[in-house]
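Module 6 notes. Inverse folding takes a fixed backbone as the condition and produces residue identities as the prediction. Think of it as a translation problem where the source language is geometry and the target language is the twenty amino acids. Below is one complete input and output pair. Work through it position by position during the lab.
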């Protein structure tokens, strides 16, 4: 039986993007599957009583420099999005919609790249519509689904369940019920998979 690494993420996190690029490469080399676990990072932070780094001046500046450094070291194409922070609630709901349509991998790849590789303003509805059209999604249908109560409730439930497990940030990797927080802990999660 192939083991899995649960990957808790929100498109709003540059570290989640770096972790995503790394885990995709590792999945090609090792016998595990990525289980995508979309969460709403803002909601998770609120529930956990955490002030995000984006709203702390010193941490925000450090994060910009650090993500550039890490991505360069790992040879990951990356640009710190000048429109940060990105409001991702509908995009995270989109992961659930895409999962139902068996297109989550394509959706996740395109949205992460749009924000953190291409630096697009994914707060702008016009740009969001163009990105959705480029992945063969009808923006009107997508947004109608994104505000559907069932989809909203599912993302809320996934976020609440993550908090109950002890998850407080993104990216987080979970293997054998063990939590590894931060893209720099991915190899520890891989070691756990190998056990």
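Target side of the pair, the amino acids:
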């Amino acid at each position: 039986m192939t083991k899995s690494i649960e990957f808790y993420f929100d498109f709003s996190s540059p570290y989640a993007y770096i972790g995503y690029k790394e885990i995709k490469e590792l999945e090609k080399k090792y016998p595990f599957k990525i289980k995508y676990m979309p969460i709403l990072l803002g909601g998770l932070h609120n529930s956990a009583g955490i002030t995000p780094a984006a709203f702390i001046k010193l941490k925000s500046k450090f994060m910009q420099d650090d993500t550039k450094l890490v991505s360069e070291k790992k040879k990951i194409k990356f640009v710190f999005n000048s429109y940060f922070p990105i409001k991702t609630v509908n995009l995270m709901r989109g992961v659930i919609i895409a999962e139902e349509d068996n297109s989550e991998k394509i959706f996740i790849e395109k949205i992460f790249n749009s924000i953190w590789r291409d630096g697009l303003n994914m707060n702008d509805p016009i740009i969001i519509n163009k990105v959705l059209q480029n992945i063969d999604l009808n923006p009107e249908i997508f947004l109608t689904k994104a505000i559907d109560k069932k989809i909203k409730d599912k993302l809320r439930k996934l976020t609440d369940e993550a908090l109950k497990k002890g998850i407080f940030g993104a990216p987080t990797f979970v293997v054998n019920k063990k939590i590894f927080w931060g893209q720099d802990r991915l190899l520890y999660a891989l070691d756990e998979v190998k056990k």
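Reference fact for the lab report: The mean pLDDT is 95.
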